[in-house]
Amino acid sequence: MVKICNYGFDESFVEEHRDMHGIAYTQNVLSGRYKNLILWYLKENDRRFGEIKKFLTSVSQGSLTKQLRELESDEIITRTVYPEVPPKVVYGLSKKGKDLMPIIDMMEEFGKKHGR
Hints:
By secondary structure, the chain is an alpha+beta fold. The protein has two domains: 1-31, no CATH class; 33-114, Winged helix-like DNA-binding domain superfamily/Winged helix DNA-binding domain (Arc Repressor Mutant, subunit A, Orthogonal Bundle), CATH 1.10.10.10. 58% of the residues lie in helices and 16% in strands. The chain contains six helices and five strands; from the N terminus they run ββαααβααββα. A hairpin with a 5-residue loop joins β4 (77-82) and β5 (88-93).
C-alpha cells in the first residue's frame, strides 16, 4: 500500500518502489474532490475566487479555499494578489499546472467515451 501523508511520501516506499513514485505523486497532487475541475476551469483563463465559486456551485467557500491552498502549496496554481481595495486575487496555472493539462484532457476524453 502506498503511504502518503501531508508532508510527502514514506522514504522506504520511495526507495523500494521508485517506479510507482510518479503515479503516487500525481495522485497525491490531484487528490481532492474539486481539484481536477478547478484545473480544467483554469485551463483557458486565469480566474478570480468568485468565478471559481460560481462555476463550482455545490462547493463551500471553506472547501474551495482549502483546495486552492493545496494546489498553490503544490505549485500547481499561482495566486496573484493585486493591491486594490478590496483586494483582487487571481488564480492561474503555473508551469507545473500546465504540465498536468494533458492528464486532465485525457480524463475528460475517457469520461466522454465511457461515462453515462
